[in-house]
Amino acid sequence: MLAHLSVNNFAIVKSLQLELSQGMTTITGETGAGKSIAIDALGLCLGGRAEASMVRQGEEKTEVSAAFLLDNNINATRWLEDNDLLDGSECILRRMINKEGRSRAFINGSPVPLSQLKSLGQLLINIHGQHAHHQLMKSDYQMAMLDQYAGHHNHLKNTRNTYQTWRNADNHLKQLKENSQKNLAQKQLLEYQIKELNELSIGEEEFLDLEQEHKRLSNSGELANECQQAITLIYEGEEVNALGLLQSANNSLIQLAELDKSLSDLPNMVSEAMIQLEETNNELRGYLDNIEVDPARMAYVEERFSKVMSISRKHHVMPEELYNHHQDLLAQIEALDCSDEKLDAMAQEVETHYQNFVAASDKLHKSRIRYAKELNKLISASMHELSMEKAKFCIDVNNEAAQPSPLGMDNVTFLVSTNPGQPMQPIAKVASGGELSRISLAIQVITAQKVDTPSLIFDEVDVGISGPTAAVVGRMLRTLGQSTQVLCVTHLPQVAGCGHQQLLVAKQTKAGKTETQMKTLDTEQRVGELARLLGGSEITESTMANARELLIAA
Length: 554
Fold this sequence. Notes:
Structural class: alpha/beta
Number of strands: 15
């Protein structure tokens, strides 16, 4: 519930501190005193639009904060936990606006975007404005009220998700069909390129191997000559060769080692070098024996190498990238491939998603009908209490001509008959201004009982209501206040007298500046204020007695 409201430099308010209680609190004051100013300030804390004109004249900034107790408010507590903003059992919303109109928002001291302030605000308090009956004539608002009363959160989520899945699949199918024609020329070009690469059928590492073999075959003569020369220098030289020189050196080292034992390791070292040279000579001899100039293989390699180089230039890629290029083209043509079989499969998938949406919509439709019947009885009874004894109320839910939407396939219309024999017709066509106010109030009071929000504000929703009906309205709101916190801005003494608490709004002029102030009234002050509302400028003993009766009756 709303526990405290602090308003500083807002419009004509210099400073305002309100302590609020559970139950029904009424707010009264003279016309023009600014009875709704606290509600407007609270609207800022809930994410309302900020304007530079809201900053009090001559001040640098406006600051408004609202403290809410989270007792039993599971939804708000869970939201704060999910967003890492929970700080004990109290939640403080704060909004600052500078004179340029720029604003900042805070939740429990942490700066947050305005969207988060709005999201949390909906879980803390619900404001019913005096112009709600204008909204009531809109079909989408009527559907929203029914769904809110019925608690259709899960139904709506499922319907919205299945609708989006179906629409996404359907759009994808349409795109495939359009692309089928657009991509025909591109597909033909890809098919030509792929055909050429299919015929080439190059392996992933083939070009590197081919390049090495081509280089080896092209230089076989030079390889043989250089190989023979190395063999001669190592082993076969008649006058001198490396192995012969090492052998002579080794003989000398052996004689030295016999004379000096410290040199005994040197012959072994030379022997190892001789072994390495012999192995090198054997490798070269084997390699030389296998060098053959195969004209047929040479011709094949040269032709293959030339073909790969030619096609790589044609495709504007490096020859070693030709294999990957081929795979890319295959993937591209597969993406463009839109065969009849693929289209049929996609169409079947779209139909499956559509049937899932229809099933979700049907569940929502049946639930709406169920709760519409419940509301019909409750709202009709509430209208009878509000001096519309012969009136009938009905919520028509039908899906005969409705278009699929994220909200299902229903049309929801609030119908009313205000007089006997009069057919049920949409509210906007039947009800007068006064009747519309009473119907709107009946609907708001009934639906508010099912809303999880622990605080409700009624901002002059009793406009157009007077006499005995006003007393009924007061009792309705007081009954509602027994289970939830109710704040009601009113001009009716019958409604004001039903409050558990009453606040008075007054406008004063100090030092040439106008200020709006608000204070909590005790019992005697309430009697005086109710008498003013009853008698206007002339307050008599009879008026005072009547005011006391209003408080006693409440």
